[in-house]
Amino acid sequence: xxxxxWVRAITAAAxxxxxxxxxxxxxxxxxxxxxxxxxxxxxxxxxxxxxxxxxxxAPASSTPTNTPSTAGIQQxxxxxxxxxxxxxxxxxxxxxxxxxxxxxxxxEGYTDSKGYFAVELGARNSxxxxxxxxxxxxxxxxxxxxxxxxSGQMGGAMSPERKxxxxxxxxxxxxxxxxxxxxxxxxxxxxxxxxxxxxxRMGPAEEGSTISAVSLAAPNDARKAYQKGLEANKxxxxxxxxxxxxxxxxxxxxxxxxxxxxxxxxxxxxKMDMARSYFDKAIECDPKFVQPYLQISILELQAxxxxxxxxxxxxxVKLDPFDYPQAFYFNAVxxxxxxxxxxxxxxxxxxxxxxxxxxxxKVSHLLGLILAxxxxxxxxxxxxxxYLKFAPEAKDAAKVQAQLAEVEKITAATAAANERPDR
Length: 423
What we know:
Elements: H1 3-6, H2 11-16, H3 21-24, E1 78-85, E2 96-101, E3 104-110, E4 116-120, E5 135-136, E6 139-140, H4 148-154, H5 160-163, E7 167-171, E8 176-178, E9 181-182, E10 193-201, H6 220-234, H7 238-251, H8 256-268, H9 272-285, H10 290-302, H11 306-319, H12 325-337, H13 341-354, H14 362-373, H15 377-390, H16 397-419
Parallel strand pairs: 1-10
Antiparallel strand pairs: 1-4, 2-3, 2-7, 5-6, 7-9, 8-10
Helix pairs in contact: 6-7, 7-8, 8-9, 9-10, 10-11, 11-12, 12-13, 13-14, 14-15, 15-16
């Protein structure tokens, strides 16, 4: 069969996709923080604001009139998109669209009856009723960031790159969790469309947490050492950070967060075996802490240990089946290489459904390979085209283009055979 000639293991493609270990632990898959796999589908850069004065025709003796500069004027940032339930339907009611900036929440607007929204971030909309939690004695907390009032208090306009640093966009509906869209680095002239934000119904079986509940019981001395380690880490004083984290686990041996940070430090130094032992220790302390599972899956992927990768990601997606589309992708890669195509297809489809902003375009390539093996050549062609659309400059683009041509050739030959009259 011609299709067997070009079908290859996904190993090289999967590893080639990857991001440094220290980066991957920072956010959830629903939060598409521009990974090398594609990131957000929005965004040109630059504000497009220019200043200058016109050529004067007045006599030299007259007082020149200067055109006011607009360089310091804050340009509005508009955001649009759509909120959808996981089954593809609009929300049952209009839902609020919120920004979350360093744990401070501000309501920006609402969706319409079909889930669409278009808002101006930070706008002082008199028709918008804010929650009481958004106000303090010093004024509104959530809506002050980046507004002219804030700029005046700070003695100047905040730079576009820093305006929404640490901010996410999300929807809110009782009983549901929302995907989050990172707003870090967003500028006024960027494409406003952030794509689709999915809502996921929370269930009792989903027990995973990005923060270890066990760690919350740490005594004061352990917490102080842990915080000191985080501060040292931010300053890139990694030796001091390790010392502080070691003091934290010495004071509180069940400090899963501290064991996890020790693992991240070791991974950053290329000491993968040591990193793995610390991640295992974090899970031993708190089996519901999801971050170590994600880092272990990265280590298993890099080492091409497919059984271990399948096991780690099976546990991760059971704990949290919504926030980590990359975990479903890794699981699909593992099962593909273990020749378990049904499981690979199931996980790849889940990753495709959750990756609404095509941050992991490699999912489409893998799904195309799986469908081609299952002789669904039309489906394979569709996924190859999607991959080339969102990763046109990928190193393997020419290879995928050839694969696309091959499945289209098979599809055309099959169609011609079906149309041939019976003899």
